[in-house]
Design goal:
Elements (H helix, E strand, L loop, with lengths): L6 E2 L13 E5 L3 H12 L3 E6 L5 H9 L3 E4 L4 H4 L4 E4 L8 H8 L4 E2 L1 H6 L5 E6 L4 H14 L4 E5 L5 H7 L4 E5 L2 H5 L8 E4 L14 H8 L11 E5 L3 H7 L7 E5 L8 E5 L2 E6 L2 E6 L8 H16 L4 H10 L8 E6 L2 E5 L6 H9 L5 E5 L12 H7 E7 L4 H7 L5 E5 L2 H11 L5 E4 L12 H13 L2
Parallel strand pairs: 2-3, 2-5, 3-4, 5-6, 7-9, 7-10, 8-9, 10-11, 11-12, 17-21, 18-19, 18-21, 19-20
Antiparallel strand pairs: 1-4, 13-14, 14-15, 16-17
GO biological process, one term: peptidoglycan biosynthetic process
Subcellular location: Cytoplasm
Enzyme class: ligase
Length: 463
């Protein structure tokens, strides 16, 4: 590494042959490094720049592939001469380097937009404020079990670009965040799924819910009458957002509040799906994923499966044996009759609401972390009904105390996963559930939500 410039180089820009197109990539995480490999494969001159430190894993990959990169800085001379820039979803538009690129008229796109140019696979794309990881992995599970040649990517798993470079899938199931959708322009979802719209990440959208909603509806852009748009008819913000849009694709809604067709609805205890490609019925008691929110998730995945004309017995088997992702309502252990559930992926209030809604026992709730301007009011009714004590896990717990001091007798502060697990265990009784569902980001005490969940699981196993 050149200590003066902090740029790893095996080839100087001046030695490039004429005609080679310069592509700059901002952010050297999973998506950026995957995009770099695909760009290299397609003959671009690639330069990767990360304003922070690059992890050893990704640094080694870039070195192995002979791709020039820098870390802990953005060298403008290296970036502003690019024909196009691929940026990490985590970099906001207000970042100085992005502003300068846009001033110069240099296109800034997402990894998904870039990789989509190089595959003709069918795209099943899933977004929403809550439930998208569960629905994406369930949909992938159903398609894979049915024998389809399918990849899983987007906000989950290995980067889409790297898979396009190294695999030959016929279908992809992509989990798309609003940040990814913001930098997608020509990409098209053959099947687009919008689960719900609730306030999240509003700091990136001028604190306007309508701006965030508009980002989510980019899932429908470029769709034609041959494509499918699946959405929740019970979600007020989704219905509101659709009123001003000219959606060209075939619409298949899902609901638990009324009967409708085509689409999916709840008839007594049965999910009923009717599409132009076939019908499907399954008892909600047979679903691997329980809870009201998971009926919605299962409906969305089931509609995708029927649109792709998968066999009913295969869909039913997959929906019945699916194992949920790590850190999302993950059962950890039962100790002295007390169940411990790891829902560390619940980084907003809505996710915690869904977790509490699915609980059937008294709960000791572990809450807290980096508060993103949370409105805890929506949790109040469920907390009154189900929560006997709150264990705060975070550096600053004042807003949690203020929100729930009139509703819960016991609110305790803790500053480590081990301390939180121990105190929750002592507050719980046989038959109760200790639920880690923080409603907050994790960066005050942990590296990320995975680290928080793993430390909690380790602490539970040591009880």
């Amino acid at each position: 590494m050149n200590e003066n410039t902090n740029i790893s180089s095996t080839q100087s820009p001046s030695s490039l042959e004429g005609g080679v197109v310069r592509l700059a990539i901002l952010g050297a995480g999973e998506s950026g490094v995957g995009a770099a490999y695909l760009a290299l494969q397609k003959g671009y001159d690639v330069f990767v720049s990360d304003f922070g430190a690059i992890t050893d894993k990704y640094k080694q990959q870039l070195q192995q592939w002979d791709i020039r990169f820098e870390e802990n800085q953005h060298t403008e001379a290296e970036i502003l001469n690019a024909v196009e820039v691929i940026k990490s979803p985590g970099i906001p538009d207000k970042a100085p380097i992005i502003k300068k690129l846009k001033e110069k008229g240099i296109p800034v796109i997402s990894e998904i937009e870039f990789a989509g140019r190089y595959t003709d696979a069918k795209m099943i794309c899933i977004t929403g404020s809550n439930g998208k990881t569960t629905t994406t992995t369930l949909t992938y599970h159903i398609l894979k079990n049915a024998g389809l040649n399918v990849g899983l990517a987007g906000n989950i798993g290995n980067s889409f670009a790297y898979q396009v470079a190294t695999e030959k899938f016929d279908h992809y199931v992509l989990e798309l965040s609003s940040f990814m959708l913001d930098d997608m322009y020509k990409f098209k979802a053959d099947v687009g799924v919008l689960l719900n719209i609730t306030p999240d990440h509003l700091d990136r959208y001028d604190y306007k819910l309508e701006n965030y909603a508009a980002s989510k509806f980019r899932i429908t852009q470029n769709q034609t009458a041959q494509d499918i748009f699946i959405y929740c008819a019970d979600d007020a913000e989704t219905i509101k957002g659709m009123q001003g849009l000219d959606i060209q694709s075939q619409q298949l809604p899902f609901t638990i509040e009324k009967k409708l067709t085509p689409g999916a609805y709840l008839d007594s205890d049965n999910i009923v799906i009717n599409t132009h490609k076939g019908n499907f019925t399954m008892s909600i008691k047979e679903l691997a994923l329980q809870g009201k929110h998971n009926i919605y998730n299962s409906m969305a995945s089931g509609i995708v499966a029927k649109v792709l004309e998968l066999r009913n017995d295969s869909i039913r088997e997959s929906m019945g044996n699916f194992k949920n992702i790590e850190h999302r309502l993950e059962f950890v252990a039962k100790i002295s009759g007390i169940s411990f559930i790891n829902d560390s992926k619940a980084t907003n209030v809505n996710s915690t609401w869904y977790a509490l809604e699915s609980m059937t026992t008294d709960v000791v709730l572990i809450l807290g972390g980096v508060d993103k301007g949370n409105d805890y009011g929506m949790l109040r009714d469920l907390v009154k009904q189900k929560v006997k004590a709150i264990v705060c896990l975070g550096k600053d717990n004042k807003r949690i105390h203020d929100a729930f001091e009139d509703d819960v007798d016991v609110i305790v502060n803790t500053f480590s996963a081990q301390e939180a697990a121990q105190i929750a265990f002592h507050l719980a009784e046989k038959g109760d559930t200790v639920l880690l569902s923080p409603a907050c980001a994790s960066f005050d005490l942990f590296k990320n939500y995975e680290d928080r969940g793993n430390q909690f699981k380790e602490a539970v196993r040591e009880l």
